[in-house]
Write a structure and sequence with these properties.
The chain is about 70% helix and about 5% strand. By secondary structure, the protein is mostly helical.
């Protein structure tokens, strides 16, 4: 039975359930936690594109479509994350300011301005991986959550964070 025939034989509910299951499985393989409903539309479109000329069975086709949908979304997030200045929230959900404000909050206007400049220079000198790690931390992600997006273990991410903190220590006074 072809993948297209098999897909058409499934009810809409069964198709959707298969999409969500494959999205969850693809995200787990990447070590990411996602809401599968956010990626169902893109995955469905990719399945529809490949159904006619599928050279594999249906579950593999849907899984590959889910992988591609996640990869596209993660690439988009990675590309545009560097432009954001993330708001930090306390565990109670109260706003605590942006990453730059937290780092620069040195007491006086002069100290704050110097710290902002020092951090901006430091940040600009970081390689793309370290920038993504800093952005992830600023967005509230843990090293375990950041690791898959930079293709590292969480231990390697923690080691990079420790080195960046050590390099920032002179800037912090």
């Amino acid at each position: 039975m072809s993948a297209k025939t098999e897909w058409e034989a499934l009810s809409e509910q069964a198709q959707y359930k298969m999409l969500l299951g494959c999205i969850v499985k693809a995200a787990q393989k990447r070590g990411a936690k996602v809401n599968p409903c956010d990626y169902a539309g893109d995955t469905w479109l990719r399945v529809m594109e490949k159904l006619d000329d599928a050279d594999c069975d249906l579950p593999l086709l849907v899984y590959r479509a889910a992988q591609m949908a996640l990869q596209k979304a993660f690439r988009h997030d990675k590309k545009y994350a560097a432009a954001a200045d993330y708001e930090i929230k306390s565990k109670d959900g109260d706003g605590m300011g942006s990453v730059l404000e937290l780092i620069a909050g040195a007491g006086s206007v002069e100290n704050e301005a110097v710290t902002r400049v020092d951090f901006s220079v430091f940040y600009a000198a970081l390689d793309a991986v370290n920038r993504e790690i800093v952005n992830g931390l600023g967005a509230g992600y843990s090293a375990r959550e950041i690791a898959p997006s930079v293709n590292m273990t969480h231990t390697a991410v923690n080691n990079r964070v420790a080195r960046m903190r050590e390099a920032l220590r002179p800037c912090m006074g």
